[in-house]
């Protein structure tokens, strides 16, 4: 007998957990792959973008290997609870989605970052990626520059046409100015570069299998 799972719904600000004033991650270790400060502000000529594509362990691993990426970290964004813990976010009562902060050098790195984002998960899946179900797994891009917003919106529209022509559902990815959120809250130290610490750890990549039509378009192998 098939049992349909209820669709998760977003918690209201009034019902969200209270959180705390103090950051969860203080004095983090340097990036285990890149050797960089994972929370340093973007320097001159660098930019930051925040990407939510399901479980952040596997998404971070994909992003840190891209050309031009300076550093990555994992945390939470798009919700209401200040400085939440991982456990609190997993209750669905903070409103946040698992998010990867990506700092990159040079605007030319952005198209591949966005292309990789679209292709490494299923952006048509609402509040779920595979067996990971909940608003904390919703697809989202949080932008920090007008160019990021423009390219994110244009690439979403182009990819939506590709998926629609293949008979797939519409994209549900949110594209939001990071300044219009409550901010990015870093996760605990043991979640940072998790798949270096736990090489055989959990990865979730529920992809559409379709290429996003951007520079260098083509299926991303090995994800």
Proportion in helices: 10-25%
Instruction: Give me the CATH fold name.
Output: Peptide Methionine Sulfoxide Reductase, Chain A
Give the CATH class: Alpha Beta
Biggest β-sheet, characterized?
A: 6 strands, mixed
Radius of gyration over alpha carbons?
17 Å
In terms of quaternary structure, the protein is: single chain
The assigned structural class equals alpha+beta
Order of helices and strands: EHEHEHEEEHEEH
List the total number of helices.
Answer: 5
- Poorly predicted runs are 216-223
Instruction: Please give the alpha-carbon distance between the first and last residues.
Output: 33 Å
Output the CATH homologous superfamily. Answer: Peptide methionine sulphoxide reductase MsrA
Average of per-residue pLDDT values: 93
Structure, described:
- By secondary structure, the chain is an alpha+beta fold.
- The chain has one domain: 2-Layer Sandwich (Peptide Methionine Sulfoxide Reductase, Chain A), CATH 3.30.1060.10.
- It is built from five helices and eight strands; from the N terminus they run βαβαβαβββαββα.
- The protein has helices at 56-64, 86-90, 110-119, 146-165, 194-197, and strands at 46-52, 69-77, 97-105, 128-129, 132-133, 140-143, 174-177, 185-186.
- The chain has a six-stranded mixed beta sheet with strand order 7-6-1-3-2-8, with helices on one face.
- Helix 3 packs parallel to helix 4.
- Mean pLDDT is 93; it is low at 216-223.
- Belongs to the MsrA Met sulfoxide reductase family.
Secondary-structure topology with pairs:
Elements: E1 46-52, H1 56-64, E2 69-77, H2 86-90, E3 97-105, H3 110-119, E4 128-129, E5 132-133, E6 140-143, H4 146-165, E7 174-177, E8 185-186, H5 194-197
Parallel strand pairs: 6-7
Antiparallel strand pairs: 1-3, 1-6, 2-3, 2-8, 4-5
Helix pairs in contact: 3-4
């Amino acid at each position: 007998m098939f049992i349909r799972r209820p669709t998760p719904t977003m918690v209201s600000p009034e019902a969200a957990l209270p959180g705390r004033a103090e950051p969860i991650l203080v004095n983090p270790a340097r990036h285990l792959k890149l050797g960089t400060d994972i929370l340093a502000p973007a320097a001159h000529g660098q930019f930051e973008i925040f990407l939510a594509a399901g479980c952040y362990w596997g998404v971070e691993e994909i992003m840190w290997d891209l050309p031009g990426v300076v550093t990555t970290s994992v945390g939470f964004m798009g919700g209401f609870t200040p400085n939440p813990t991982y456990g609190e976010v997993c209750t669905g009562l903070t409103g946040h989605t698992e998010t990867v902060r990506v700092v990159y050098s040079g605007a030319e790195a952005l198209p591949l970052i966005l292309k990789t984002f679209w292709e490494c998960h299923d952006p048509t899946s609402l509040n779920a990626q595979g067996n990971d179900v909940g608003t904390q797994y919703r697809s989202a891009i949080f932008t920090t520059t007008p160019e990021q917003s423009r390219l994110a919106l244009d690439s979403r529209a182009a990819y939506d046409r590709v998926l629609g022509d293949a008979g797939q559902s519409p994209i549900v990815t949110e594209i939001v100015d990071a300044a219009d959120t409550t901010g990015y809250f870093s996760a605990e130290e043991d979640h940072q570069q998790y798949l270096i610490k736990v090489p055989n750890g959990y990865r979730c990549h529920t992809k559409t299998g379709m290429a996003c039509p951007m520079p260098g378009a083509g299926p991303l192998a090995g994800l």
